[in-house]
């Protein structure tokens, strides 16, 4: 479990990303797009994955609305994966999902997930896991559409 100082820092990071999100704003050209809705709380996202010719993720663009956790998670995801190869992105999605399903038993690896590891505490609140996962599920769907 994170120390109280670290928890405060994580909370501030999540609030910062929800206020000034990375990757916010859809692009006109659409390589692969997914729209996801969390019917439990009404969080909603449309996420685009833009791949470069070399197979890396050039950009993640998204728009949506919902709680601070869902918005921050989308921003953190976009920041994390830009420049990564698709297989690396898929691996990080799987690792994040495992941490979110752990109910606090697995601390997310900051080496692998960067600042998105700050969302680790969400896993202890089952009702909020879907909020944190929404962008990651949309990304997974968009990656399938990229082929």
UniProtKB/TrEMBL annotation:
Designated name of the protein: SUF system NifU family Fe-S cluster assembly protein
Limits of the NIF system FeS cluster assembly NifU N-terminal domain: 9-131
Domain of life: Bacteria
């Amino acid at each position: 479990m994170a120390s109280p100082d670290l928890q405060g820092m994580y909370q501030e990071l999540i609030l910062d990303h929800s206020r000034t999100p990375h990757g916010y704003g859809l692009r006109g050209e659409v390589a692969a797009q997914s729209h996801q809705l969390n019917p439990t709380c009404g969080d909603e996202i449309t996420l685009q994955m833009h791949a470069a010719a070399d197979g890396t993720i050039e950009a993640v663009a998204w728009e949506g609305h919902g709680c601070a956790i869902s918005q921050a998670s989308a921003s953190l995801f976009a920041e994390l994966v830009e420049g990564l190869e698709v297989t690396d992105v898929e691996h990080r999605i799987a690792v994040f999902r495992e941490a979110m399903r752990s109910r606090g038993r697995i601390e997310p690896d900051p080496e692998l997930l960067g600042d998105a590891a700050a969302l680790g505490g969400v896993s202890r609140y089952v009702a909020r896991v879907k909020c944190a996962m929404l962008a990651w599920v949309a990304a997974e769907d968009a990656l399938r559409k990229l082929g």
